[in-house]
Amino acid sequence: MSEIRDVVIIGSGPAGYTAALYTARAQLRPLLFGSSIFVGGSLTTTTEVENFPGFPDGVNGPVLMENMRAQAEKFGAEMIDDDIVSVDLTGDIKLLTDSAGTIHRAKTVIIATGSGYRKLGLPNEEKLSGRGVSWCATCDGFFFKDRDIVVVGGGDTAMEEATFLTRFAKSVTVVHRRSTLRASKVMQDRAFSDDKISFAFDSEIAEIKGTGGMLGGVVLRDVLTGATRDLDVTGLFIAIGHDPRTELFTGQVELDGEGYIQVDSPSTRTNLPGVFAAGDVVDHTYRQAITAAGTGAAAALDAERYLAARGAAQTEPATAAVPV
């Protein structure tokens, strides 16, 4: 049988790496599964991060994630860039199967799988990410001073993004497929009262144009008539929602109506003993690197205290996991 780890962390990014750092410093020898594709989380697709404390000149997103990973590894965290494809978290010993079919056993599990931005699915969307196309106004708005910007979406997030962007932009056009917004009245009123914000209702983005490797504008299509028109903008912010990455845990960990993991706030405890969740996978509201890191630290402390209360901290030497 494979060894039983004190802590296994599923997911990288600020929450996962911070949880790994804290549990490693507590000498719990954490094992972290980062992913075979999305190692480091969504910040690896961000060019400059200017709102993470400790970096007055900003920091490159992938560099920040590499440094967080290296810091956790320095204290003994073990990292595997592979996916967990199935789990059984209901017993005292949690069973996690990786893509090679190896079963890993753990006394505690920290889930930090994050969430993904919903995308339009258009050509150039991925290619121009970080080059005019963004999913985070808080992260990237500063780089669009005195620019004409379009925001896609009709909910609270879109209105919040549009209002925030008026601090920097020359103009903001909100594009929404319906004739009315879905946002709360207070958010609608705030957007409607802002002179910099205009609206393109019953419209969708039909094309994202690239010019010299940067966003060169978009084509709007009227969903009622099919008519198209060009919109000359250099910033496109997509705010049509997030999808938490929780498919792996459905039927075991309690989820809310939108698929986010429910925790016993302010702790990170889930409905299953020994299972904790941190970062964007539990966060409807903030979805920032620093808040994810904070809950990653909390999850590590919760796991450490859970193990201490059960007298369960591992003392026997490690043995290798074996394929099953």
UniProtKB/TrEMBL annotation:
One of its GO terms (biological process) is removal of superoxide radicals. One of its GO terms (cellular component) is cytoplasm. GO terms for molecular function: thioredoxin-disulfide reductase (NADPH) activity. Its EC number is 1.8.1.9. It catalyses: [thioredoxin]-dithiol + NADP(+) = [thioredoxin]-disulfide + NADPH + H(+). It is an enzyme of class 1 (oxidoreductase). It comes from the Bacteria. The keyword Zinc does not apply. Transmembrane segments: none annotated. Keywords: Disulfide bond, FAD, Flavoprotein, NADP, Oxidoreductase, Redox-active center. Binds 1 FAD per subunit. Pfam families: Pyr_redox_2. Its cofactor is FAD. Belongs to the class-II pyridine nucleotide-disulfide oxidoreductase family. Homodimer. PANTHER family: THIOREDOXIN REDUCTASE 1-RELATED-RELATED. This is Thioredoxin reductase.
